Amino acid sequence: MEFDWRYIFYLFFALLIAFVLRQAISMIMPDFRQFRMESAVRKTGIGVNADIIYRSKTGMIDGEDPVYRLTFKFVTREGVEVQSSLEKALDMDGFIRYAPGNVVALKYDPNHPERIALYRHDRPLILGD
Hints:
Layout lengths: L5 H39 L1 E17 L2 E11 L5 E9 L2 H6 L5 E6 L7 E3 L11
Antiparallel strand pairs: 1-2, 1-4, 2-3, 4-5
């Protein structure tokens, strides 16, 4: 019985495909989890105005825009001060809009206030008493 080199090629090709799929899934899953969490918060969350207290570059690129980690500080309806972060791709207009010290509108999950989502077209909310 002689050795068939095609099987080595098939094995190498299968391992290469498994490695590429593993890398692709590890890059997609965090974005998918954040998207699902933000979608749920947008539906059931409570709107508040939040101060941007910190912005840092993550090193990732979404399309042509760099992704930044934005840290917000806000007060819940119960009077608890919360700091929470999320990642967002920012173009030049977004870079100016989401500068530390600016105020944005976001929603938070009343059961887990650290889970937040920005309003789609965020503008500071005018909240009544």
